[in-house]
Specification:
By secondary structure, this protein is mainly alpha-helical. Residues 26-46 have low confidence and may be disordered. The protein folds into two domains: 9-126, Arc Repressor Mutant, subunit A (Orthogonal Bundle), CATH 1.10.10.10; 146-208. It is globular, with a radius of gyration of 19 Å. It has helices spanning 9-29, 51-59, 61-73, 78-85, 89-102, 130-143, 146-162, 173-181, 189-202; strands spanning 34-35, 41-42, 105-111, 119-124, 170-172, 206-208.
Length: 209
């Protein structure tokens, strides 16, 4: 499912334009070569956005959405992308493999606890920004915590059921707290409410405090 704010033709064309600009800046600043999945060395001044790939991206807005997200953020895991763009993680993983096969992104490193499965941090082709990678690691770890997972569930319930019944996409912080306390959660309600409020704002909902 495509993010609701990324479904119109104009949004797709704007993302294509932005992506061209981002990739152009990367290659203007870098004189490195790229090695694709067939170990073929590609000159650094050769654009990634060939006519064929542009056509593929226009036909797949969700793939373009994921690619644009990675280039804007500089680094991300499948869990981060799934959470931010409201897509299933399996779908995101499939798209990431496709983008890697096309030569747009690269697996940079693994992150996660030593006990659980590790996730790949994906970055644009070239030298990753250490600050962006660190932010991705922190966000991924946060999303792996029970408190954040609960906030995800509550946010989705509010988006699916509670907020659509309102005249406008808005909610008060007090309403969020009331909804959270109905669950009798084992966490500080205020901590979870802060996360839910932030997530709702990411989805275009105004939160009144």
């Amino acid at each position: 499912m495509t993010h609701p704010n990324f479904s119109k033709r104009k949004d797709v064309e704007t993302a294509i334009f932005d992506l061209k600009s981002i990739i152009g800046n990367i290659y203007n600043l870098s004189r490195e070569t790229i090695i694709d999945d067939k170990s073929t060395i590609i000159p650094s001044d050769e654009t990634l956005l060939s006519r064929e790939l542009l056509t593929r991206l226009r036909r797949s807005p969700v793939t373009l959405q994921v690619l644009t997200f990675i280039y804007r953020r500089g680094a991300a895991t499948s869990r981060i992308i799934s959470n931010r763009l409201n897509l299933s993680e399996d779908h995101v993983c499939h798209i990431l493999k496709r983008l890697h096969r096309w030569g747009f992104i690269q697996p940079f490193m693994k992150t996660g606890s030593h006990r659980g499965a590790k996730s790949t941090i994906w970055t644009p082709i070239g030298k990753p920004d250490p600050e962006n990678v660190q932010k991705a690691i922190q966000e991924h770890q946060n999303l792996s915590k029970p408190k954040y997972r609960l906030a995800d569930i509550l946010t989705q319930e509010l988006l699916d059921d509670y907020i659509p019944r309102k005249p406008k996409p808005e909610i008060t912080y007090r309403e969020i707290l009331i909804k959270i306390r109905e669950y009798r959660i084992p966490f500080n309600p205020v901590d979870v409410a802060d996360i839910v409020a932030w997530k709702l704002q990411e989805h275009g909902v105004r939160v009144w405090r």
